[in-house]
Design the sequence.
């Protein structure tokens, strides 16, 4: 027997099946929390945002268009809630995701390679762990409008069209922001590496 789709679960919930909503939450809460945590870089804030998101889904379930996919709608709510939290804290922080990080295609270091290092297990060799920390630091410092498209495209593998739905911008803007994000990351990652090498040489 095939598992019910997200959309079917929401319809069942609207028909009075509370267990359907619980299953929907269990299905998505881990990935949703990871997304918000990467967006806010603060675990208590991420917990609050996820809670607010689920409350919003609960209260707005009747307004959902069943002809659409539910997951982008869910992430749209989470992204909006996360932005609200970041604003309250007064804190700022068509291009393939494996594009070269330099301003021209001659750059040998590719963005995807570094993000793969960022997802590596902490018990792997020291060089990979060092790269992971640097990647996280650079992404944390990235302007929100750039980091959010990067996180949705790489970590959560949303298609460009759905990224546009989630953050509320046209498809062309998603592509241009990804291009800008990769370039921003490349420049600041190289600066971070240079700073680290300078610190090592002085120690």
Sequence:
């Amino acid at each position: 027997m095939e598992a019910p789709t997200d959309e079917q679960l929401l319809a069942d919930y609207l028909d009075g099946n509370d267990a359907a909503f619980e299953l929907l939450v269990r299905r998505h809460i881990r990935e949703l929390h990871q997304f918000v945590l990467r967006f806010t870089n603060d675990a208590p804030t991420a917990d609050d945002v996820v809670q607010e998101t689920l409350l919003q889904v609960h209260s707005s379930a009747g307004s959902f268009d069943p002809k659409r996919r539910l997951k982008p709608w869910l992430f749209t709510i989470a992204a909006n809630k996360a932005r609200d939290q970041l604003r309250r804290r007064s804190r700022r922080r068509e291009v393939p995701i494996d594009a070269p990080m330099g301003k021209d295609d001659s750059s040998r270091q590719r963005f995807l390679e570094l993000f793969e290092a960022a997802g590596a297990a902490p018990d792997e060799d020291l060089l990979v762990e060092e790269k992971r920390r640097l990647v996280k630091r650079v992404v944390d410092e990235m302007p929100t409008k750039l980091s959010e498209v990067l996180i949705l495209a790489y970590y959560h593998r949303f298609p460009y069209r759905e990224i546009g739905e989630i953050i509320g911008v046209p498809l062309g803007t998603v592509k241009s922001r990804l291009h800008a994000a990769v370039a921003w990351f490349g420049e600041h990652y190289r600066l971070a590496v240079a700073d680290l090498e300078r610190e090592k040489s002085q120690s």
User: Anything to note?
Assistant: The chain has two domains: 6-88, 111-202.
